Amino acid sequence: MDITETHVHTFGIEVILTEDGKTTPCCVHGPTLLFEKVSKAGEKGRRFFACSACRDRKDCNFFQWEDEKVSEARLLAREAENQSKRPPFSHQEYFTRFRTFSSLPLNEKIFCQDCQVLLLPGEHEAHSSHRSTSITPAQLTRPSVLLRPLDNKKSNAQYLFTDRSSHFLLDTLAALGYRRVLCVGTPRLQELIKLRNLEQKHEPMKSLLLDIDFRYAQFYSQDEFCHYNMFNHHFFGGESSSAILQTFLTECDGEKVVMVADPPFGGLVSPLANSHVKCRSANSNNSVAADMPMMWIFPYFFEPRILECLPSFSMLDYQVDYDNHPLYKHGKTGRKQTPVRLFTNISPRDVVLPEEEGYRFCSVCERYVWSFNKHCAKCNTCPSKDGREWKHCSTCKKCVKPSWRHCQSCGRCALPDHPCGHSEGKEGCFNCGSLQHKRKSCPLKGKHRINRWDRAFSSPHCAGMVQYLHDLTCSFAICVCVSLLPL
């Protein structure tokens, strides 16, 4: 369905977080999420369930109205489809195969590149027409390099940390005294921890990887990996897998625990935050788990949404970059820099950013900042978010991006080619239409709604970003959700 400009300014789609214990229909990716269409006049639309992980119905076409009566035959067909798309082996079977594979002679260690599976001797014939390669024991310790990254940007794209970012994260965590790392969607960090433990040059650390990519079950034991969907806090292995997380958080023995999460950038912030909170409090009897420190890796322009859901967090200036992404690279100047940052509830002054990479300590802000992030005496902060040196606007009484100019007609700073006349506040509340407040403080806003879906391109912050980060989903939120609706 095409979204016209009129549509964008007249409706939105919200995700509604259901109460704990309330069951929702399941697709192959686990329990679905509940959505609701809302109009600018505040009228409520019909609610529906859709996949939690996929934003394109071509990847997962699950759709069900909340009040829809589903026949027994349809339920059985749905369950059969879900069963057919599950991994061919259980986690225990995968790891048994791995131990057998590891004991094979070097010339018999074959990996099928088409099926992305380690082959045992009796399986070579069935894969004879496929592309395959011999692998070494060293390659078995780097599954993220061996496996082909998933690249569907609308569902499960995998961008993997560079060695620079991986080593920085691990060195920082080790320096802060953490010895247990819960790796949520961070396979590179998991690998580095295991490799350092083998070198025996550092104090050993324990790690548990939670990831939606079941292929990692081929390389890690059940105590090291859980097949997990971070959008709905779903463990595909059931209670036995969730118990592994509880054990990991419980058996601390005085060891400090930290969680590092790298969600897909197209993910909805409120469901992700909800899942992360559930991870942190997986063991309600463990105060350490309930207050567990965390690092969430996400683009800087999602800062308002993240802080809305997790107000104790703050954004650091450190630029996280990825091996297999054309834009998310560490750079020296603004537009050439990766937009990905660290959000954390750890004190910013305690996270030391490397001076040799261009970071410095601001004694006023008491945190490490990028060298071009100059402290503004008027704002009393280092204001830059994107790595460029921002400038102070005396009229707006705040610092703005260097490419922005103050517009007398709009009464605010904006890009020189912005649509003049659409000043902040004139459009009023999205929920009821009032010009006196924004939807966030609307008295008619439903108490069940946790997250708001901003209208695509409506924010002046998005105009410049989209040109630079066209494949990100900051501007996709509405379009994607409407595509879930039946035509």
The CATH architecture category of the largest domain equals: 3-Layer(aba) Sandwich
How many beta strands in the DSSP annotation?
Answer: 23
Count of discrete alpha- or pi-helical segments spanning 4 or more residues = 13
Largest sheet composition: 8 strands, mixed
Number of domains: 4
CA radius of gyration is: 24 Å
In whole angstroms, the N-to-C terminal distance is 7 Å
Helical residue percent band: 10-25%
Ranges with pLDDT <50 over ≥5 residues? 1-10, 446-487
Q: Beta fraction of the residues? A: 15-25%
Sheet/helix structural class? alpha+beta
User: Which oligomerization state do the chains in this entry correspond to?
Assistant: single chain
* Overall pLDDT score: 81
CATH class descriptor name of the largest domain? Alpha Beta
Largest sheet, spatial ordering of strands: 13-12-11-10-14-15-17-16
Shape: globular
**CATH topology grouping of the largest domain:** Rossmann fold
Main location: cytoplasm
Domain GRF-type: 27-69
Domain CCHC-type: 429-443
Keywords: Cytoplasm, Metal-binding, Methyltransferase, S-adenosyl-L-methionine, Transferase, Zinc, Zinc-finger
Features:
eight-stranded mixed beta sheet, 4 domains, 487 residues, globular, Rossmann fold, disordered C terminus, disordered N terminus
